[in-house]
Specification:
182 residues, alpha/beta, Rossmann fold, 7 helices, 6 strands, 39% helix, globular, disordered C terminus
Amino acid sequence: MKTVVLLCGVANSGKTKTLKAFFDVSNIKRLRPLQLLERNLNGKKVYNIGSTSPQEDANDFCNVEKIINRIRKRLKECEQVSQGQDYVLIIPFTMERKDGKVNDRCIVKPIEWLKSEGFNVFSLYLRKEKTDLLHLKDTLMKRISATTIESKKDEYDRQAKELESFTRKLELGKKSESDTKS
């Protein structure tokens, strides 16, 4: 089964730096757009394609169709690279608009789409305690059954280790947490 892990967080919660530490490319200052990162973990192929969030790529933050198309493009690349084998794709996911407001539709709708396409979906929440509207962000992440990783400045290696631990525990072919709670 193909698995998608959404690494959710607000601006400056460390999504990119955590991914760079996880894939051991922290020495690269700027990744190319849609650059493929690959790692083997417990016999699983783990990928990241593009360190920017699909929402960040959209000029108007929440155009669900544009976001899904950007995800679709990353999935297509994974299919080619993995040659159809099972994999884990980690996608950074921004939780808020530039004005700091939470836009849950642009989180929930892409998750629903991924599940309808047969992907196993898990969410990780890089929780930055000092952020506006924290209670709304926490509520959204609880609603999508996200696992929380506390986000702290300059602790990206720790966050990457927690991401690694979470990814190691994933069993390809199992239903996502939110599917098993239904």
